[in-house]
């Protein structure tokens, strides 16, 4: 039964390893993971930026816990010991494998119930064992580490699971079955299990590692070992076996746990071991990658004398003023094409002469010019949209208001203007009046936030008394585009 289960575990692993080997042999450069122009070379020991081999050893206590004859008897603990040594291979920053050898000894006691127990007295047993196992190692600290946590860390939580083979020799001594005639000396009952294919066991556990230095880790580890054998404790095997200590509990596997303190020696010349190397956030590794890069990049061979971010090799304007925004050819931007670059233009979106800092010149004594400016502002006011039944201006309308603000500022502060809000004929007059006033106020408030003087503008709501298309009262008499045109905000001189 055990042999069949072991074969079922091993075959998928062997198949997967063969598949990976064949896939690796078929890979050519450049491939899907390269651009074809980069410096490409095989991934081998010389190209690594981390170490991934280690040797671990340690020891501590061993305690038979789930057994007929166990280490916890009469409120006392019968201490055992164990020691281990392993060869460790870190496959990724979250997973590794270890080939481990462990040996140790457990000490245990038990008492048979009733008359048999009185006759036998308290039995003492001890088990010497040795094990060879293959362990999987999951680094939970790297697996669950937050991507935005860029701090170095020295502690790591690990989880272990694996299978192996064991051999053990158990001796049990009591006052009944160990008796030899009337000889006062007692001969222990012996159970000897040789290491073989039918003696495999399972183990799981956890450990906390501390990165003491780039060469050494220290670890506290606890492992739970499922032997799969009912005679490991010396209590015999089978219901009718002798000695009959195996009748004390109903389980068929004597399990024990170990608590160890160990040390890991990290092998290799690289600065960081893969256990402590996180490709998403390990700053030291990033520095290492940059240091090993052989190519020197020259951004500007002739420099950038005006510091505009465009190399002199292709800069068409080598004397760009400091702080000016430029295009890809290094020419200072002039959004309204009035000859005043945006750095000095006080009306960026409206053309104006250099003498007026790029803003249009409108004389207070020239009403025709004022009217022209008002028409231009109203052109920007067309299509101003608000949230439904609200005075909140929709985001897509803000750019139009920004351009209107530039024109108003260019007209000077000696003029007085009105921002008028109007609605369509739907709804009551009272509701429409309040809504139109709030919308006119919202436009004035926004224009003032863009630098328009508060003394220039006045808001007035006219509700549905100021219809652009008076024939649309009631609203059902007109198509929707006319009703939409009635819902407006416009600009006029006071």
General description of the model:
This protein has 494 residues and is α+β, with helices and mostly antiparallel strands. The chain has 2 domains: 50-291, Porin, CATH 2.40.160.20; 367-493, 60s Ribosomal Protein L30, Chain: A. It is built from 8 helices and 16 strands. It has helices at residues 2-25, 114-120, 140-143, 283-291, 367-381, 398-410, 429-449, 480-486, and strands at residues 53-66, 72-73, 76-77, 80-90, 95-110, 123-139, 155-173, 179-180, 183-186, 189-193, 200-211, 216-226, 255-267, 417-422, 457-461, 488-493. The chain has an 8-stranded antiparallel barrel with strand order 1-4-5-6-7-11-12-13. Strand 8 (179-180) and strand 9 form a beta hairpin. Helix 5 packs antiparallel against helix 6 and helix 6 packs across helix 7 (429-449). The protein is elongated and about 130 Å long. The chain starts with a helix and ends with a strand. 30% of the residues are buried. The model is unreliable at 14-38, 283-290 and 363-368 (pLDDT under 50).
């Amino acid at each position: 039964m055990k042999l069949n289960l072991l074969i079922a575990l091993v075959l998928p692993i062997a198949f997967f390893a063969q598949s990976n080997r064949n896939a690796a042999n078929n890979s050519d450069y450049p491939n899907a993971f390269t651009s074809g122009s980069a410096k490409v070379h095989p991934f081998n020991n010389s190209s690594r930026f981390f170490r991934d081999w280690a040797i671990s050893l340690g020891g501590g206590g061993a305690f038979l816990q789930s057994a007929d004859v166990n280490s916890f008897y009469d409120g006392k603990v019968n201490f055992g010991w164990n020691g281990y040594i392993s060869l460790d291979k870190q496959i990724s920053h979250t997973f590794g494998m270890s080939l481990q050898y462990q040996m140790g000894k457990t000490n245990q006691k038990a008492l048979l119930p009733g008359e048999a127990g009185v006759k036998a007295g308290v039995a003492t047993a001890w088990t010497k064992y040795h094990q060879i196992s293959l362990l999987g190692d999951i680094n939970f600290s790297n697996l669950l580490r937050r991507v935005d946590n860029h701090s170095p860390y020295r502690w790591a939580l690990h989880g272990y699971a694996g299978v192996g083979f064991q051999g053990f020799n158990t001796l049990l001594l009591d006052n009944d079955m160990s008796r030899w005639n009337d000889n006062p000396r007692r001969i222990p009952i012996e159970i000897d299990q040789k290491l073989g294919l039918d003696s495999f066991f399972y183990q799981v556990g956890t450990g906390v590692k501390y990165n003491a230095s780039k060469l050494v880790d220290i670890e506290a580890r606890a492992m739970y070992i499922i032997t799969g054998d009912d005679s490991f404790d010396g209590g015999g095997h089978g219901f009718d076996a002798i000695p009959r200590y195996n009748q004390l509990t109903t389980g068929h596997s004597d399990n024990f746990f170990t608590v160890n303190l160990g040390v890991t020696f990290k092998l290799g010349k690289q600065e960081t071991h893969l256990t402590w190397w996180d490709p998403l956030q390990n700053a030291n590794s990033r520095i290492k990658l940059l240091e090993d890069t052989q190519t020197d990049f020259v951004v500007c061979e002739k420099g950038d004398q005006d510091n505009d971010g465009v190399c002199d090799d292709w800069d068409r304007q080598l004397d760009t003023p400091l702080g000016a925004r430029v295009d890809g050819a290094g020419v200072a931007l002039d959004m309204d094409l009035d000859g005043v670059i945006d750095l000095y233009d006080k009306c960026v979106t409206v053309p104006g002469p250099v003498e007026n800092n790029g803003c249009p010149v409108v004389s207070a004594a020239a009403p025709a010019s004022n009217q022209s400016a008002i028409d231009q502002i109203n052109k920007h006011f067309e299509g101003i949209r608000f949230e439904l039944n609200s005075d909140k201006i929709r985001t897509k309308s803000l750019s139009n208001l920004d351009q209107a603000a530039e024109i108003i500022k260019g007209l000077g502060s000696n003029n007085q203007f009105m921002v008028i809000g109007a609605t369509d004929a739907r709804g009551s007059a009272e509701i429409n009046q309040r809504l139109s006033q709030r919308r006119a106020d919202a436009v004035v408030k926004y224009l003032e936030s863009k630098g328009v003087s508060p003394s220039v503008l006045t808001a007035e709501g006219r509700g549905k008394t100021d219809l652009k298309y008076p024939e649309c009262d009631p609203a059902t008499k007109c198509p929707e585009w006319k009703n939409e045109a009635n819902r407006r905000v416009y600009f006029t001189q006071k």
